[in-house]
Amino acid sequence: MHTPVLLAESLEALAINPKGTYVDLTFGGGGHARAMLNQLEGGRLFAFDQDQAAAQVAGQLQSKYFTFIKANARFMRQFLTFHGVRQVDGILADLGVSSYQIDTAERGFSTRWKGTLDMRMDQANRLTAQEIVNHYSEAQLQQLLQNYGEVRNARTFAKAIVTARAAKPIHTTEDLRMLLQRWVPRGKEFKYYAQVFQALRIEVNDELGALKEILQQSVHLLQPRGRLVVLSYHSLEDRLVKYFLNAGNFEGDLRKDIYGNALRPFKPVYRKSIKPSDEEIQANNRARSARLRAGEVVGTHA
Questions:
Q1: Which of 105, 118, 125, 260 maximizes the CB count within 10 A of its CB?
Q2: pLDDT at 59
Q3: Structural domains present in the chain
């Protein structure tokens, strides 16, 4: 079952106009989309997801206000243009991995299950986690573990992968987990496994590259005072979103005109990120790392 994270907070941040046009960039199990549709009366909702499982769930959602697009959200502008939409009132992006993906062993997203090292959001893509661990160079492995997983002993583990695969290919999540055990800090096993798997998943799906494109496109798609709402689950995502909403770039360098006015396309809706309540985390542990940020478009950027 899919439990949408920060659902009430997401709807509040979107400030939905019942007759407006909205986009859910990560349909997943459809929890956020259903709640958004319930608030529309004459409006439209377009939902994106590249996962076939999400497409099947979306096929069960019957509404004249709803259109599902099976594609990576980084292509939202061209698909919306195809559907005759040039500007929208709100965009929601929940960047988390869906419960279905995590709990399906053969997708390879979790160390909890023994499955093939896959991790593709779109199973039509060629690159898999198995391809990475068995064919990337030691330097490439070290770099992605450092940059995408923030793994402290990335160099040691990259070398261990290269040594291990020379004797026997690394095919499954269990193979990788067993290899990790020697270097995992005691008492921090779950966090360490999550960091390594996060690094591989980001590389497989080019998640940060896609996020940057989504943020940049949202500036041109949203109407003045339109809202962008993003739920991120680790510091790499959250930092990009924070910098872009606050400064209009990915370096966080706020520029001003000669009058001292900030040159940025968004005005942050909240001063700080919104976090799940203790009650929500208790009911849905996967919400614990979620951070919600929202921005409102300033001026016209079409």
A1: 118
A2: 92
A3: 7-99+207-297 (3.40.50.150), 106-205 (1.10.150.170)
